[in-house]
Design brief:
It is built from ten helices and five strands, in the order ααββαααααβαβαβα. With 268 residues, the chain is mainly α. The chain has a three-stranded parallel β-sheet. The chain has a two-stranded antiparallel ribbon with strand order 1-2. β4 (196-204), α9 and β5 form a beta-alpha-beta unit.
Length: 268
């Protein structure tokens, strides 16, 4: 996609090897030779792990892909200052980290009896499943080893004899990096047809609001206001087929889809 929109919209486009290989080569280089930042407002080291974690977080938010491309281009030139500016946590970021841990650990199965050996095996299995997130995402769940709160509302049963008064609308992005579409399909099937209906949004990013789809927005409004579910196997496309949601045009005119994106965010 980056190569298709060109260098004016994606700084990693234009290389002979392509943007994907360029990014993977950068990761490989950082594994052996981290990039030091010795001067400027922030000093530090850009490592393989820190850059891969940055890549994974970027996949959540397509609106940030052009910024990621700019940072990666700087690293290719030996300049890690923009990376440190983008990733160094400030005081205001810690509340998000704390709430994120609460969500992860209360959603997950109890982990207070996990041993270091079992956790190591878990990370190895995850890495085999996902090169980008497998060895970084599990580390964020390590605090769950000491999380003893158990939420009352967490449902651990099945839905064999359960009938919900209000069926659940399950929305899954085709290329969601955090909650895969296959997981959404399994959840909808587990809840059974009378209790849940799956809507697929053919897009990248995490959650349906990561990109603009008037189709998804209309289905969501129909569900919330009229308790109306979409037809089976409904798939919603994004509005901008020219990748404007992912790599905005720089012609001084904001894409209509970006305007709708901001309106949708403001409505929540």
């Amino acid at each position: 996609m980056c190569d298709e929109v060109g260098e004016s919209r994606c700084a990693l486009a234009g290389s002979e090897s392509g943007s994907k290989k360029t990014t993977l080569d950068l990761l490989s280089t950082l594994y052996d030779r981290p990039v030091p930042v010795r001067s400027g407002p922030k000093v530090g080291l850009v490592t393989f792990y820190s850059f891969k974690s940055f890549l994974y977080r970027t996949l959540h938010r397509p609106q940030s892909w052009p910024f990621f491309a700019n940072v990666a281009r700087d690293l290719l030139r030996g300049n890690g200052a923009s990376f440190l500016d983008a990733t160094s946590a400030g005081i205001s970021d810690f509340d998000g980290v704390e709430s994120g841990t609460a969500v992860l650990c209360t959603d997950a199965v109890p982990a207070t009896n996990y041993s270091l050996a079992s956790w190591t095996s878990y990370v190895q299995n995850m890495t085999a499943l996902s090169f980008v997130a497998g060895d970084s995402r599990p580390l964020e769940t390590m605090p769950c080893r000491h999380w003893y709160a158990v939420p009352n509302e967490r449902w651990e049963g099945d839905f064999e004899n359960v009938h919900l008064d209000a069926p659940v609308l399950v929305i899954g992005n085709t290329y969601d990096p955090a909650t895969p579409l296959d997981s959404a399909k399994r959840l909808a099937a587990h809840m059974r047809e009378e209790n849940a209906r799956l809507l697929e949004q053919r897009s990248y990013g995490h959650c349906s609001l990561s990109t603009v789809s008037t189709c998804t927005w209309n289905v969501t409004l129909g569900y919330l206001l009229e308790r109306k579910l979409p037809e089976k196997a409904t798939v919603c496309e994004v509005d901008d087929g020219g990748y404007g949601d992912y790599f905005p045009r720089r012609d001084g005119v904001e894409a209509e889809s970006l305007r709708l994106y901001r309106l949708m965010q403001a409505a929540l």
